[in-house]
Write a structure and sequence with these properties.
Blueprint: H1 2-60
């Protein structure tokens, strides 16, 4: 009985340690995801700006038919 309780204590300590490790890993993954989403939004904004500039440049080019 004593050895079973000791084995159970060891397993419980391992479970607690693993839970803490997974909690920390989950926290880090959430931070990484938030950073990636922020970068994605910034890149999307830059693409929109570049698209608008390109459209303006294309609209300002003379038509071939008028030359």
């Amino acid at each position: 009985m004593e050895s079973q309780l000791h084995a159970l204590e060891i397993k419980l300590a391992q479970l607690i340690a693993m839970s803490g490790k997974l909690r920390a890993e989950n926290h880090q993954l959430r931070q990484d995801l938030a950073q990636a989403q922020s970068s994605n939004r910034q890149l999307g904004d830059k693409m929109d700006i570049a698209k608008e500039r390109l459209e303006r440049l294309l609209n300002n080019l003379p038509d071939e038919a008028h030359e």
